[in-house]
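Lab meeting, item 3. Inverse folding demo.
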């Protein structure tokens, strides 16, 4: 696995959530790097063998901006994409209430 940015988190015995961002090549490396970070932080509560860590791989965020008029225009009937495309457009038109 290539190097990935991960958010590793856990909730301590008092119900306080903690998280650290690390770059790791594997799930276990992500947890080990985060544990190292948590241990250096004096505000972080200790954890035990049963502590569950949540590892979230953070992929680059892609944002798209689409105007409602563009969506509406796209849903207009066309035979260009065949029956499957027509059904997809009809389904979206129904969701939009057209």
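The presenter then showed the designed sequence:
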């Amino acid at each position: 696995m290539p190097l990935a940015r991960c958010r590793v988190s856990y909730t301590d015995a008092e119900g306080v959530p903690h998280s650290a961002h690390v770059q790791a090549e594997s799930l276990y490396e992500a947890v080990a790097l985060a544990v190292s970070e948590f241990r250096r932080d004096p505000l972080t509560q200790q954890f035990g063998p049963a502590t569950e860590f949540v590892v979230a791989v953070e992929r680059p965020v892609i944002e798209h901006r689409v105007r409602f008029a563009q969506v509406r225009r796209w849903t207009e009937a066309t035979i260009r994409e065949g029956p499957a495309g027509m059904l997809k457009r009809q389904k979206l038109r129904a969701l939009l209430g057209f």
